Every structure is written in C-alpha cells, then in structure tokens.
Amino acid sequence: MNIIRKAMTKTINWGIIGLGKIARKFAEDIKLVSNACLWGVASRDIEKAMDFAEKHQAEHYFGSYEALVNHPEIDIVYIATPHVFHFENTMLCLKANKAVLCEKAFGMNTDEVGAMIKEAQQRKLFLMEAMWTRFIPATEKLLKIIANHEIGEIRHIKADFGFVGDTNPEGRLYNKSLGGGSLLDIGIYPVYLSLLLLGLPKAIEASATLTPQNIDTSCSIGFHYPNGAVSHLASSIVTQTPTEAFIEGSLGSIRVHARFHHSEKLTILKENHPPTEIELPYKGNGYVHEIEEVMSCLQKGKTESEKMSHDMSLQLIDTLDTIREKIGLQ
C-alpha cells in the first residue's frame, strides 16, 4: 500500500541506509515521534547493520540496501550515506517506489538533483532534502521575526561554519571520491541561510584554499542582492570559527547563537532597547522537527514539503555549483 493512502494514525515504517554518526542521532529521534517506527536498517556490512539495529531497537536489519528498499513493509527511507552516493541511493529507493528523505547535500550537482526530483514526481513519491536547519524552532522563530519586520529590511547577513577536521586522506572530509571538502559538508549551511532569508543573489563572489587533491579546506563567499543587501559566508575544515549568524536590518539585528544551523538561542538587538534573548530548545537531537514535518507530509498525501521544497533544493545546488565553478573546484 502506498504511504500516501494510509490513515493519519497509521504507523509509518522508516528504513535507514548509511549507518554513521548522523544516522545514530536520527534513529534516536525517531523514537520520540508518534506513529514513527524504525522498521529496518541496512549496511553493506551485515555485522554493522545488526549492531546498529540492536542498539537502536530497529525491528529488522539487512546486509544490502536493495534488500531493505525492496521490502514491502518499508514506507520511507532515510539516506545518510556520504553525499557522493546520494543520487545512486535515492534513485534506488525511488525505483522501488519508496518515499525518500535524503541528507544534504542532496546530490553532487544540479543534474543529479534534477533527475532525482523528476523521478519522484513521475512516481508521485515524497522526496525531500534533509535540511534539518529549516525545521529547528530557532529557525522558525527567526523567520517570524523577519516577516514581522521587527528588524526592518535585511541589509547584511554574516554566517560562518568552521572546525578542525580529521586530515586522514581516506576519511570523509579529505577524500575526493567521497565528495570531501568544506563547501558541500558545512558551507552549505551558511549558503542555505542566505537563500532562505534573501533568495537567490544577483551576483556571487567566491575564493577558496584548495589542496593538491582539489579539496577545498576553506571557502569565502559573497552574495550581492538587487536591493543592495550583501551576505558574507564562510566555511572551513582547518580552523575553528564561532559558527554563528548575524542578520542585520534597517531597524536592528538578530544574533543566531552557535551553532547557528541548529541554534537554541536568538538575541534581538535594537538601538535604545535592551537585548532581547529568546531561548528555543529543540526536541531530542534536533531531528525530531524534521521527522515530524516528513510524517505530516506523508499523512497528508504530499509529495514535497512546502518548507523545504524541490525548488529550494534546486536553487541550493545550483548556487553551490556556481560557487564551485568560481573557486575552480571540480
């Protein structure tokens, strides 16, 4: 039975492929969502799948992705593999008529993302990029503050994300075959924030430090908007940065406290007013809100989320493609 025909109170069976750090946190949060069941997990390593299932109370485990996605009891698959495999894994699920929630970056380029969306639309299946930032309570509140013109018109956005990463050439961050580098891994968050608040820029500037293996260890980005607004965005896997965001408007500014992509605190600053601090804790590890959105969409028969739409994913990957072209990243 297709998931979109199920009753509102029907349990939705989740599968997970790619059983790393993010998948572990996601699995913990599935337990906190009503009518969500972690039905199965899969790894190319059957022992890893078995251990993951035991630790997170998954009902079943599989030694291949194909076995999981082709099982009739699975309703939706959460893909948490390295982003270089997202296209292949997503298409596998969609062709098995399974709904998909796929980690960011959605695909490696605009062509891949476009093909994934086309496949989902043709099959009338739900598909969403797992940009958990969009569903965090602090982000929801930020959007309301801006919509209410509490800080006036946005003039400037500053956002950074940096940490000192593992330099192992076989690891995820420095391995070209795994899509390594700062931009797709963490630079995507500052870029997304600017797109969310200001839309597509009219002009993009970018520079980066590249390794001999063509991995970007740091990236500096400037967006220029038709109304004169500017965004200064940065990512790094060689330096620890504040990982905060500042949205400066004509009437005041908002500080999105670290880490801004899943912040739990906003501070509104306005001239001649004391700072207003707003505490906004999220549920579980922060993935609960994303899971709840997906569950709601599935139960209502939607094939995409209005909050994280297919168009937004296309705009995001197209912008990342432009940045990579400007910094010479292949």
Description of the structure:
There is one protein chain. The protein has helices at 21-30, 46-56, 65-69, 86-95, 110-123, 137-147, 182-198, 288-299, 310-327, and strands at 12-17, 36-42, 60-62, 76-79, 99-103, 127-130, 154-162, 203-210, 216-224, 230-236, 245-249, 253-256, 265-269, 276-279. It is an alpha/beta fold. A hairpin with an 8-residue loop joins strand 12 (253-256) and strand 13 (265-269). Helix 4 packs parallel to helix 5 and helix 7 crosses helix 9 (310-327). It is globular. The termini are far apart.
Entry summary:
The protein is of the alpha/beta class and 330 residues long. The chain has helices at 21-30, 46-56, 65-69, 86-95, 110-123, 137-147, 182-198, 288-299, 310-327, and strands spanning 12-17, 36-42, 60-62, 76-79, 99-103, 127-130, 154-162, 203-210, 216-224, 230-236, 245-249, 253-256, 265-269, 276-279. The strands form 2 sheets. Strands 8-9-10-7-11-12-13-14 form an 8-stranded mixed beta sheet, covered by helices on one side.
Characteristics:
disordered N terminus, 330 residues, six-stranded parallel sheet, alpha/beta
Q: What is the ordering of alpha helices and beta strands?
A: EHEHEHEHEHEHEHEEEEEEEHH
* Count of DSSP-assigned helices: 9
Strand runs, count: 14
Shape: globular
In terms of per-residue confidence, which ranges show pLDDT below 50 for 5 or more consecutive residues? 1-8
Q: What structural category characterises the helix and strand content?
A: alpha/beta
The mean pLDDT is 95
**How much β-strand is present in the residues?**
15-25%
Strand order of the largest sheet: 8-9-10-7-11-12-13-14
Biggest sheet statistics: 8 strands, mixed
Termini separation comes to 42 Å
| Computed CA radius of gyration, to the nearest angstrom | 20 Å
As a percent range, the share of helical residues equals 25-40%
